[in-house]
């Protein structure tokens, strides 16, 4: 193996301790993927509006039973009461899945209960009472279609500070994207603002172009012709699939720990958990798409 192979090069260093994401419905997919995922890998369980508490807990339990570390999501605006928050955390603690959580605002325009944002959930002090030690929050290198940049920055600095004030460990996971330029710029700005928490850069797993574009449109992620061409797909060929090879190599090449701090990767799998796990293994092995 050449010494500059991705297995030992900068892209491989970024891949170390990557995390994955699944939904409550992905338990069978997790079983299929388990053999190719390193034990101890963090697996986030999303908080989708079309799934219930029992499904989310069952998924977190399955993650644990396969030897991975569950990171269940809590969606502030979707929680109807403090009792519901506590019920969820208790159920997670019972299956050994409450040590790490990811707290997100939640897409409902009006909160369904007492929490308007992630900060209010963090500030309840309830998390640590149920055994939580690490708390992830989200970051937006390309901004958010419904929230202005000043609000996003103050939310992020307030959240990471509040997590530490509660005696917990913060981590930031970014919205997925197809362009490493805004990611590196945003990381430099984040560090300039004094946030030193580790950042997991959100990356889409390999998927059909049509599906990737659909999710990008839904969440306000940039897909200009120039960006997607650089990423490796064309807007006129919707039948193909695309993985983050180029994105990761470019990100690794541009990553300067002195400027961007500690960076890891988080893979959004969008229904392709097994394909993503296999892709990561192949990429780590020889740096090429399978
Ligand atoms: N990055 C990700 O992986 C995910 C992001 N989201 C969505 O991103 C948005 C922001 O979430 P966080 O960064 O955790 O924000 P946050 O909870 O830290 O809130 C930041 C600011 O945005 C406002 N805000 C939060 N959700 C909003 C909404 N749906 N509509 C209008 N204003 C809102 C809050 O009041 C607050 O002022 C939410 O809509 C959330 O559902 C949802 C799921 C996953
Ligand atoms: N603003 C915002 N809101 C979100 O809800 C959100 C983001 N950003 N960024 C990415 C994450 C990951 N999200 C998702 C959303 C859906 C599936 C999913 O698997 N949905 C389908 C099955 C897959 C499909 O057929 O496309 C489902 O079961 O509902 C996964 C992750 C939601 N997320």
From TrEMBL:
Pfam families: MTHFR (PF02219)
TM region positions: none
Catalytic activity: (6S)-5-methyl-5,6,7,8-tetrahydrofolate + NAD(+) = (6R)-5,10-methylene-5,6,7,8-tetrahydrofolate + NADH + H(+)
Origin superkingdom: Bacteria
Keyword terms of this UniProt record: FAD, Flavoprotein, Oxidoreductase
Cofactor(s) it depends on: FAD
Pathway recorded for this protein: One-carbon metabolism; tetrahydrofolate interconversion
InterPro entries xrefs: FAD-linked_oxidoreductase-like, Mehydrof_redctse-like
Family indicated by similarity: Belongs to the methylenetetrahydrofolate reductase family.
Protein name per Swiss-Prot or TrEMBL: Methylenetetrahydrofolate reductase
């Amino acid at each position: 193996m050449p010494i500059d192979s991705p297995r030992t090069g900068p892209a491989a260093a970024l891949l170390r301790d990557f995390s994955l994401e699944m939904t409550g419905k992905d338990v069978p997919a997790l079983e299929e993927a388990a053999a190719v995922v390193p034990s101890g890998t963090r697996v986030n369980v999303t908080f989708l509006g079309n799934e219930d508490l029992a499904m989310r807990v069952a998924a977190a339990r399955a993650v644990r039973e396969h030897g991975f570390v569950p990171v269940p999501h809590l969606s502030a605006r979707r929680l109807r009461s403090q009792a519901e928050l506590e019920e969820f955390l208790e159920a997670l603690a019972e299956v050994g899945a409450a040590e790490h959580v990811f707290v997100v605002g939640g897409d409902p325009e009006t909160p369904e209960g007492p929490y308007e944002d992630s900060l209010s959930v963090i500030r309840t002090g309830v998390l640590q009472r149920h055994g939580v030690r690490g708390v992830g929050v989200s970051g937006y290198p390309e901004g958010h279609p419904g929230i202005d940049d000043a609000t996003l920055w103050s939310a992020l600095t307030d959240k990471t500070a509040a997590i530490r004030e509660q005696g917990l460990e913060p981590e930031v996971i970014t919205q997925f994207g197809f362009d490493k330029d805004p990611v590196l710029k945003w990381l430099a700005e984040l560090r300039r603002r004094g946030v030193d928490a580790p950042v997991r850069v959100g990356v889409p797993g390999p998927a059909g172009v049509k599906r990737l574009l659909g999710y990008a449109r839904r969440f306000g992620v940039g897909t200009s012709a120039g960006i997607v061409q650089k990423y490796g797909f064309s807007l006129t060929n919707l039948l193909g699939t695309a993985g983050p090879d180029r994105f990761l190599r470019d990100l690794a090449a541009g990553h300067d720990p002195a400027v961007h701090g500690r960076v890891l990767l988080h893979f959004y799998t969008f229904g392709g958990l097994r394909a993503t796990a296999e892709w990561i293994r192949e990429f780590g092995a020889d740096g090429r798409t399978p």
